[in-house]
Amino acid sequence: MGTPITVVIAEDDQQIAEIQRRFVDKIEGFEIIGIAHGLDEARDLVEVLKPQLLLLDNQFPTGTGLELLRELRASGSSTDVILVTAAKEVDTLRTAMHSGIFDYILNPVVFERLQASLGNYSSHLDTLAER
Q: Which among 17, 37, 72, 96 is least buried, having the fewest CB atoms inside 10 angstroms?
């Protein structure tokens, strides 16, 4: 396998972030390069580390992941996003899809669902690399 896909986790709940980290560590081809517990920290990590993928929670004490997603898109960031959220509201998910997320996962995160999403993402990158 080639160079691992770099991932930043943005999740305000430290226990959930740790679970996500452990799940991603079990999936070949992915490397966690940062964990943010707030939106400002997430913004900084994406700007400085330029991960290929951001696992982004939606609810933070200071705002929403959707707001950060809009900022990233407006700034031209090439980081792809998988939204990890408890938000089952259709409008939230529709807005996220229109804002260019690759996928979304509803909390609580189940390993098999995360594994499937990351596998789809890896296949997507492979397809793009072939073109």
A: 37
